[in-house]
Amino acid sequence: MFGYIVHRLLVMIPTLLAISLIVFIIIQLPPGDYLSTYMAELQAQGEAVDPQKLAYLREIYGLDRPAWQQYLYWVWGLLHGDMGYSFAYNLPVTQVVGDRLMLTFIVSFSTIMFTWIVAFPIGIYSATHQYSWSDYGLTFLGFVGLATPNFLLALVMLYFANTWFGISIGGLMDDRFIGTPWSLAKLGSVLAHLWIPVIVIGLSGTAGMIRRLRANLLDELQKQYVVTARAKGLSPFRTLMKYPLRMSLNPFISDIGTLLPHVISGSAIVSVVLSLPTTGPMLLDALRSQDMYLAGSFLMFLALLTVIGVFLSDLALAALDPRIRLGAGSVK
Amino acid sequence: MNRLLPTFTILLCLLTGGKAQALSYIETPSLAADVAAGKLPPVEQRIPSDPAIETGRPGQPGGELHVLISSARETRLLAIIGYARLMAYTPSYDLVPDMLESVDQKDERVFTLHLRPGHRWSDGEPFTAEDFRYWWDDVANNQQLAPTGPPVALLREGEKPKVEILDPLTVRYSWSQPMPTFLALLASPTPITIYRPAHYLKQFHVKYADKDKLAALVAAGHARNWAQLHNRMDNPIRNDNPDLPTLDPWVLKTAPPSERFVFERNPYYYRVDREGRQLPYIDRINAAVADSKIIPVKVGAGEVDLQSRYLRFDNYTFLKAGEARNSYRVRLWKTGYGSQLTLYPNLNVTDPVWRTLLRDVRFRRALSLAIDRHEINNVIYYGLALEGQNTMLPGSPLYDEADRKAWAQYDPAQAGKLLDEIGLTKRNGEGIRLLPDGRPLQIVVETAGTVAEESDVLELIRDTWREVGIKLFSKPLQIELMHNRIFSGETMMSIDRGLENGLANAEMSPAALAPTLQNDWQWPRWGQYYETHGMSGEAPDMPMATELMQLGHQWMNATDFEARRSLWRRMLAIHADRVLTIGLCAEVPQPVVVSDRLRNVPEQGIYNFDPGAFFGVYKPDRFWFVPEVPADQPS
Q1: Which candidate, A222, A175, A186, places its Cα nearest to that of B290?
Q2: Which pLDDT tens digit goes with each residue over A259-290?
Q3: A32–B260: do the CB atoms touch at under 8 Å?
């Protein structure tokens, strides 16, 4: 087992290097660089840009050097924990990301909690009452949740939250709390704003999870050990909890791998629509304006989380399910 | 400029007259506590001994103004609408001294600037001629801080001005030839700031700072060298350094990055009202960051006190619906663009067949005649816009109705006749005319694709062009990509805003009418040629273009008002007659949302960037809040 862990950890290094190269190439693919974006922005505001000044800035930012040099400079910095410098914000990347991470965590964890709390009972209920009217009804609701574009839902909910409950539009708290230290009133304001993004972001995930749980559980419920357990007189509820439900949990464990980066990046589009101060919109903005070190370092951070998440979920699966064993395939 | 001299004299009389009455100053309530505690000197010592006096109706100090911006970079907007400038435009676009006490000028070559005695930076340090010297000697002419030298706009055919410091309150700029644009440069919304807070910036300057301390600062700021650090700290236009002393009415207090920026009143501001209260009236500005797409919705929900940016004419009905519920009012201001949207035929397109055709004035006239502007106006702008070419607006003293109407009436028959005359008589099965080399006459109009308005307008033009046998395709592109395609000559036609300043007078530079900028999309390569002094691009090779260049040149050398006026008129006439750009509709209203409690915001205004600085010419330092919402009574 120890050898396996070391092996997996070592494999991460070339994986991450390959990802860094791909990330860098993709960021460089669109025409122009940050300065051409900057120029377009100035022009849109009616200002003229002196081409000589532009050349000077290009030199200051190191954008005149060949791409491979820029790449090496960036990777070398990353290895030393230096995430680079954001052109657009004129600040080191770590400072730019700063406060947003905390709020992103809050939104994402609330969303995951919402998803699980809603999806589990419904999923179990519709599996055990398959093809009943309530199953059809819940399934219908689930599909509606899956099919509604969530940015549209976000806009609709924003409008009604404002006209019915007087909650300020967008953002995660009232404007007066921004930049102030945490307090009970601030927490209250955050909670009042939180439910909209949580429902909007969580809805499609909830619907998906209901479907998966139902399908997994239905597979298990037909199996003989369930019949045996029932025949031995175990109460239906304990039977369900102790055997088939545990068996159908495997997909959720393996989901953890993709969950971690999702927690950090949030749902970019919904966050943009709702104007949430999370990291998603910032990443989108950085990619659009070709603020390459901000975007690059951010994507690398996500890649790192994915790699670690997959590793952790593999370990957890092995620990949870005795049927999954190392090297089992080769023995067969 | 001669026309302005009387204005100067009147203003001087007013100022001295005001001083004779010995205004007694009233302390600002929100600063009284600090004054009592000895943290701030009393108001008499904070304002210049000869302050600028606002003659309009006085208001009451206090209150917090909420606005929305779309990103942390937009803190620059506050420096624009604050509009504290050495010289400033009045709402009727006269150029007057503002922060300067007065200006003497000789032959438009020698400008002597007089500062107000006792004028101070926002940190209480005196604002003197040393700040001007520091910028000219140690910033603009420093090889490391400005490798390209002083801003090109300050050069007269490559010649640098002579800058003299006559005494602590007097600075002189002089050139050997007339430099009529100098004072206007100082009044721009993004001016050439010819002064800097020397006392603050010297700590970052290698010439003045202690070597070890500077090295530590550079390391702490992750800067490559001292010059980069200095430039980062010193950006009055970008307005993103809370430590940088300023002369603006409100001072940035929040360090980026943040989701909300607070600007506090500048206790050393140089203007007072006629009863002796120091301006600005409003204590604090609170600028929250929200995505630009959500801003209209937030404004409609009553979350701001004053907003115009990111509100578009198509938001008008939505905003109007929220008026009563959220106690604000939507005002419609006129915009100052020569044309809201304009088609730019690229005279420098690389395809030889298209180049010949686009350079043929008959072709451009035919394209213009085949557009139904009345339809566009009614369908897109509810008939509220002004139809016509991309030229001056009726509010400009240079306006001539004939320019706006030239080749702008909808006349498909005449358009067809012109196209036949050029020889585009053959048509394909679809009825589309054929180019001389047999290709169908298909015009691809490239748009930056960010607003629906552009594609809606193109959709209407497509229908009417189709009738005269021209096919139009619109192609939305990312803006950077579009720029590159235009500069390299791949684009045959593009659509964008028209002339930035449709309200010019003869004293303003007509450079935008001559091929001087790469960003003029009808002649990008000629503009590039001028901007790079012939290093790249192409020399203008059409007589019309060289004539425009010459006229622009003559304007710079002309010294009397009538000569300038006639040069402007000739350039405008060439534009109108040759249809260099195809204008559509102008004066499209700009919604401005104003809280019912906010006073002194004009009911009818002009929303323009340069000149105008958006709200700047209306001096937001005199906007004020009434404490209670009065029943149904707009200001």
Answers
A1: A175
A2: 667 666 657 777 877 778 788 888 888 887 78
A3: no
